[in-house]
Amino acid sequence: MAAAAVAVAAWSGVSTPAESSPPSPTTVAAEAPGYTVEDFNYPNADKVQQEKGIVLKRGDGHIVLAECGSESGLMDIWARYRNGDHICFRVTGNSGYLSLEIPAVYGITGAANQSADVTMTVDDETTHYNVPKGAITPVGENTDPDGRDHTLVEIRTSK
Q1: How far is it, in rounded angstroms, from Cα 66 to Cα 144?
Q2: How are beta strands 86-91 and 151-158 bridged, if at all?
Q3: Distance CA 3, CA 37 (A)
Q4: 146 to 2, 113, 138, 142: CA distances (angstroms)
Q5: CA dist., res. 80 & res. 106, Å (int)
Q6: Is the pLDDT at 17 greater than 60, yes or no?
Q7: Any idea what the Cα angle at residue 61 is, between residues 111 and 150, rounded to 5°?
Q8: At CA 67, angle to CA 150 and CA 99, rounded to 5?
Q9: CA-CA distance, 134 to 157, in Å (whole number)?
Q10: What are the phi and psi torsion angles at 137 (to 5°)?
Q11: Which residues share a beta bridge with 54?
């Protein structure tokens, strides 16, 4: 009789204690993975500001801070407060953009492979300068009749 009960249970789909049940389904991920959104903020900007005294805001990655003298063809920025030291940028790609703040800039040497349009401010005035490839260009106080300190706020490069 017990054999008949097991046969009926098996036939009807009811499991007996001796049978194992199929494993329960498990959830692999509760939700889909998040998306990475590029905000174009300059990486490690806080560290750069602390170490070099310049503010790097946003860019497209084609104008990046570089160690001066590490390679030829860098863009050099000369600022009064740097005591003769300068700030260098590597310029890549067909065009580039960087929003920044470097106070008291008085000269720029253009990158070897790209010309630049730089924007500087003093008081409430904005001035644009064209910096040819590889050329030393006086900017800021060197071109201001009053010799005021200008802040470099934007660099745009193109081939």
Answers
A1: 29
A2: unpaired
A3: 65
A4: 109, 33, 15, 9
A5: 7
A6: no
A7: 55
A8: 40
A9: 12
A10: -125, 120
A11: none
The answer to whether the CB of 103 falls within 8 A of the CB of 95 is no
* The token pair that represents 137 in the structure block: 């260009």
The tokens for 39 are 């905000």
pTM: 0.73
What does DSSP assign to residue 142?
G
Pairing state between β 63-66 and 95-102: unpaired
Q: 98-137 pLDDT, tens per residue? A: 999 999 999 999 999 999 999 999 999 999 999 999 999 9
Q: Which of 128, 126, 106, 103 is nearest to 115 (CA)?
A: 128
Q: Which of 92, 53, 87, 47 is nearest to 69 (CA)?
A: 87
DSSP track, 34-63? PPP----BPTTHHHHHHHHS-EEEEE-SSE
Q: Which domains does the chain have, with CATH numbers?
A: 45-158 (2.60.20.30)
Amino acid, res. 14: V
Quote the tokens at residue 7: 């046969």
